[in-house]
Amino acid sequence: xxxxxxxxxxxxxxxxxxxxxxxxxxxxxxxxxxxxxxxxxxxxxxxxxxxxxxxxxxxxxxxxxxxxxxxxxxxxxxxxxxxxxxxxxxxxxxxxxxxxxxxxxxxxxxxxxxxxxxxxxxxxxxxxxxxxxxxxxxxxxxxxxxxxxxxxxxxxxxxxxxxxxxxxxxxxxxxxxxxxxxxxxxxxxxxxxxxxxxxxxxxxxxxxxxxxxxxxxxxxxxxxxxxxxxxxxxxxxxxxxxxxxxxxxxxxxxxxxxxxxxxxxxxxxxxxxxxxxxxxxxxxxxxxxxxxxxxxxxxxxxxxxxxxxxxxxxxxxxxxxxxxxxxxxxxxxxxxxxxxxxxxxxxxxxxxx
Length: 353
Description:
By secondary structure, this protein is an alpha/beta fold.
């Protein structure tokens, strides 16, 4: 048995330790919030618009039209964020960025959110001071060649020169694929996408490699698009999505849940045209999404109709996809992996509840 004095001291000592621990926990709780928490939304509201980093011109994703109006899947997401915050999809501005400079622009606060076909990887998620908010396009790296070459299998591409962008994952993917298949290759890398297109168009390289969606978009810029073919071989996984700076969880939540809202709207049959009348729905999932039940907007620091405004601005995810990338567009891309999970795809909204 312990001595009597030990039994007497045991409870007060433990109580003191517990009290100190609780005090430490209180201090930690008070300081646990990142220094930047809430700063981005406050800055955006003070400025009056969201500054989005986009590509320098990638049809279907972010590209200025003949009138200089930005359009595309990534642009729609930016406008949806603006609508969620301000109720106005025009409360946005766009900064064209090369692959090389995009993360620096985000880190230096030149932009609020990067909505520019960007692959989510472990290295980027842990070493660049950014957080990815989700995936708005599931892609893979492909290879485009001239039809006259007659190659149908990527394993026939021994000794080729490939054109691509610097500051992307493509060079590593090329190295992985070609070396693992004992194929010789050479890379010509350029900072700007239009430089890659020009080099390939001028026969400086045999192969143009980037995401398949990017190849479909950039092929439209070639002198004779029909003379080029994208091989069936996919050499990587490229989950593309929006990114924000680390340290401001509220802003991360706003971007993440705006993307989720657009996917959820498609799942629930809510469109740009019917969103207003859908507020009268008895479906509890629709009621929570559109803000007629619960107070989920409060949790984001937004009004309760944040998702309603986002959906009315751009339509649901499927509407945005078909308008910018779908079979009736010049890109002619099928939904494929970007179909809803109920249709055999990977798009699956986290529930609002």
